[in-house]
Amino acid sequence: MPSFDPGTYRDAKKRRVLFVIPPQRIEEHYGRLADVGARLPWLGLTYVIAAVRDAGHDVRLVDCEVEDLTVNDLYRIVQEFDPDVIGASAVITNVSRCFAAMEAAKRAKPEVLTVLGGPQITIFPEQALKNPAVDMIVLSEGEITMCEILLHLDDPQELGRIPGTWARSNGQVCANPLRDLIDDLDSVPPPALDLFDLSKYHPAAYIWGKRVLPILSARGCTFSCRFCEAKLTFRRRFRHHSASRIVGEIKDLMDSYGADSFQFMDDIFTLKKRRVHELCDKILESGRTFKWSCFTRTDCIDPGLLAKMREAGCYLICFGCESGDQKLLDLIDKKLTVEKNRHGIALTRESGIKAFSTFMLGLPTETREQSLMTIDFAVQSKLDYAIFPILEPYPGTEIYQDAIKLGYFLDTAGNRVAHDYEGDKTWVPNGRDRAELEKLSFTAMRRFYLRPRILLSMAVGMVRNLPTRRLFKLLWGGVKYFLKARRQKVQGGTRY
Predict the structure, then answer these.
(1) For the stretch 268-281, what's the b/e string if a residue is b when 16 or more beta carbons lie within 10 angstroms of its beta carbon?
(2) What is the pTM of this model?
């Protein structure tokens, strides 16, 4: 059973490793919703950092996003820290910035080994290595692979044969087979959140708590939604931590940082209901009181499970209902029905847990009437929160291939352009207009939120459960959105 054993790597020469989150403004993530969007630590990267540190290496993390640092600042940091290896995690929205960070590192120290990982790299390894500033890439999980890179750093032959990597050597690319995923997740050390200045991070507007921290109890998803890249990264496998490990981690975070609320960031928290019952029992046995939220599907809950989750502190479940039209749900292979979504939302509310859902506007073949059906579904349901992003098809997914056939891409100036694998473009389905979709997204938010029930519920929840500074920031952000969003264009790659 594959597991992580830091002792295997502690005899290696101690290395200096710099991990980087490249420069990016929050507006580039959330567009018109920037004032109410989340800014959270990159949890996946923190697991890799923790593993490398546990193996005995000297690590440093630079979050250029939060620290408002430029590529020139990164150049200076590389010169000062003098790392042996520099690594970053690339997603569709930051891959070009990761390349810029690696280029800056090479200018500062040409001999440094540059390593990229993350979903975008796993899906498009060939494109990543076309950039001469990238020496190696890590596919899928990086904890063991990164430690092996550091173990063999002085042995070019062994370095080029590490499973789960592609490497460039003498002008050639060595593509190694994928590494087996880690079965024993408890063997992986907890994420290195201590390297972040947590006072500079915050959750989204609908998340309660004075000090909210993200946590992972499981990895992967077994479903096959056409728009999602998780199945490409984790091969449709679901693995989870033990209940004891999760509760122990929660206790440490409460004691170390004063956390009173947690976001379980699992793709599908309740996929295995028995293990959720066990976790809730462990939480109740611990005697600790805290709030928590999670993500799941409407067909992966039942009244008994919801009651237990509520008893253990769950106050919010985030669903991905995606559409109010059955044809579109079938098109994206959601394997859900509109009525199942409606019923799941109702069950959640009846249990005393609040319900949130994402919806996508502008799916392939979607008509204006179908968009309005989605908005109507959200408004008529018992949801407490909803968002309505415009579809941005991720390269490598099935829906991206649909998008190429059934629509067109625009650059930031609104000109039609060819598709590529970087996420700085907007997509428009044939027969629709981008301006119309942006207006519909705003209309959906206005129709959903500017209702007495929703406004009162949000006001009461926020006043009772948010620190004063964040409360006023979010209130002002909401006012700004509804005053300005009608006139603002959606930035390419942001969806909002």
Answers:
(1) bbbbeeebbbbbbe
(2) 0.93
